[in-house]
Amino acid sequence: MTAALLARGLMKSFGPVRAVDGIDLEIPQGTFYGIAGPNGAGKSTTLRLLTGLLRPDAGTASVAGIPVWPDPQAAKREIGFVPDNPLLFDRLTAAEMLEYAGLLRGMKPDVIAARATELLSVLDLVDSPDQLIADFSLGMIKRIGLGVALLHSPKVLVLDEPFGALDPVNTQVMEDLLQLYRAGGGTVVFASHVMDVVQRLCDRVVVIGNGRVLAEGTVAEVSHGRPLQDAFVELVGGRDLKEGGLKWLSSSPD
Ligand SMILES: Nc1ncnc2c1ncn2[C@@H]1O[C@H](COP(=O)(O)OP(=O)(O)OP(=O)(O)O)[C@@H](O)[C@H]1O
User: Fold this and answer.
1) Which of 87, 114, 221, 253 has its CA 20 to 30 A from that of 141?
2) Closest C-alpha among 231, 160, 228, 221 to residue 192
3) Which of 14, 158, 190 has most ligand 1 atoms within 8 Å of its beta carbon, as the pocket-test mutant?
């Protein structure tokens, strides 16, 4: 079966910083796939290379068999991307934002209208139809970002830190929506630091450190029977507070 996302030898540097240093990935269709790694490991850069938002210095990526760089528009039709901070238009309502995103994608107005109505309902964004995005809570921003990414019915949904800063209720809503999308045959790929979410949701996981793949496999293979968090810390190298450091934090105030 053609991989949902395939990367071969991806490299990307920003000046002297090698953000992605030869990443190979093969993400099977229909999976829930986690990309884990510490801050600055290269997760966001990898996602941007895979989704055609950033051109690699070397290597190739393809989406559902379509090479990303020779034909970025065709590849982007198969992808929905929800960045960490979705780029939205603050002066639009949720419905207007969906309509605008659909028109930009060249979709027919009646198809946009029908899908937007369903999406706004599933995303729980119908209660305040006149509210501008500028006044949205973070949970609402994440939900409308997801709506924009799903509108054109992509085969692969890619999300950067979808659970960052969400409260438990919104985390559950996001999880349910992703499960719903996957149940319909979609592939979900997301980057996260939150190991218990990755462990709970994902079929497979890759752990990235310094722009390289440190481990890849099913969650059971990567975690070796331990909590994924412990395997993660061992793989990326934990940091102990030096003995004797910050003693003043636990002593009584002077
Ligand atoms: N546009 C850019 N210009 C310069 N350096 C960048 C740029 N984007 C990323 N980097 C650097 O590349 C490295 C990888 O960054 P990236 O954002 O991909 O990591 P990350 O794993 O997503 O981190 P985090 O979990 O903190 O979001 C970091 O050292 C970062 O500072």
Assistant:
1) 114
2) 160
3) 14
pLDDT in tens, the chain (254 residues): 789 999 999 999 999 999 999 999 999 999 999 999 988 999 999 999 999 999 999 999 999 999 998 888 899 999 999 998 888 999 999 999 999 999 999 999 999 999 999 999 988 898 888 999 999 988 889 899 999 999 999 999 999 998 877 888 888 888 888 998 999 999 999 999 888 889 989 999 999 999 999 999 999 999 988 888 888 888 887 666 566 677 777 766 66
- What's the CATH number of domain 1-78+185-239, 3.30.420.10, 3.30.470.30, 3.40.50.920, 3.40.50.300? 3.40.50.300
Ligand 1 site, residue 45, Cβ cutoff 6 A: yes
In short, whether 14's Cβ falls inside 6 Å of ligand 1 is yes
Strand ranges in 78-225 using DSSP code E only, listed in sequence order? 79-82, 156-160, 187-192, 204-209, 212-218
First to last CA, the chain: 67
Taking CA atoms only, the protein residue closest to ligand 1 atom 3 is 14
- According to DSSP, the residues that pair with 82 across neighbouring strands are 159
Ligand 1 mean position, distance from CA 196 (Å): 23
